């Protein structure tokens, strides 16, 4: 694994907050594994840890929302990455609204989209959710730099790690 650490240690991807709603529950988490995965049709994949509460809600959800944060939104990243929804009502601490298909949208995100879940893919200790974008938006203007992995390195995961 040390050889692979030399590769992945050089990466500094944009972080995102993924939110899910299903069965009367809402959840959200900070995710570092996500990417566009198809050009035609456009598809985007987010990977959620199987030990994460958001995964437990997302596995029953038809739609997920993916949000980009600005670098100065570290407090929001810490809320969604460093706290678990099993103990804290994250949505009581942020401005949000309901989006397409009942998705949960964070109103202060730099940019966001709602995607219909078209496939779930096992991938080790994470499951990939392949999304078909159906609604999107964001702040007007160019915005500031996005929150990256290096900006969130000080956030300890809020969910239990096995």
TrEMBL record:
The family database entries (InterPro entries) matched by this protein are listed as: Flavin_Rdtase-like_dom, NADH-dep_flavin_reductase, Split_barrel_FMN-bd
Asked if the record carries the keyword Magnesium, the reply is no
GO molecular function terms listed in the Swiss-Prot or TrEMBL record: FMN binding; riboflavin reductase (NADPH) activity
Keyword line: Oxidoreductase
Q: Which domain of life is it from?
A: Bacteria
The UniProt entry, under SMART domains, shows:
Flavin_Reduct
Tell me what this protein is called: Flavin oxidoreductase
Q: Which organism is it from?
A: Streptomyces mutabilis
């Amino acid at each position: 694994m040390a050889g692979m650490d030399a590769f992945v240690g050089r990466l500094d991807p944009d972080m995102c907050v993924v939110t899910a709603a299903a069965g009367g529950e809402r959840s959200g988490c900070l995710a570092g594994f996500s990417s566009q995965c198809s050009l035609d049709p456009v598809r985007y994949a987010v990977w959620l840890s199987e030990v994460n509460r958001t995964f437990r809600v997302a596995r029953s959800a038809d739609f997920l929302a993916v949000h980009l944060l600005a670098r100065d939104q570290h407090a929001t990243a810490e809320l969604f990455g460093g706290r678990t929804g099993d103990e804290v009502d994250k949505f009581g601490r942020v401005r949000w609204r309901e989006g397409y298909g009942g998705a949960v949208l964070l109103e202060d995100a730099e940019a966001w989209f709602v995607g219909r879940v078209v496939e779930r893919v096992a991938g080790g200790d994470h499951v990939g959710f392949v999304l078909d974008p159906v609604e999107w938006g964001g702040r007007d203007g160019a915005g500031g730099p996005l929150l990256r992995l290096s900006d969130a390195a000080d956030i300890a995961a809020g969910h239990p790690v096995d």
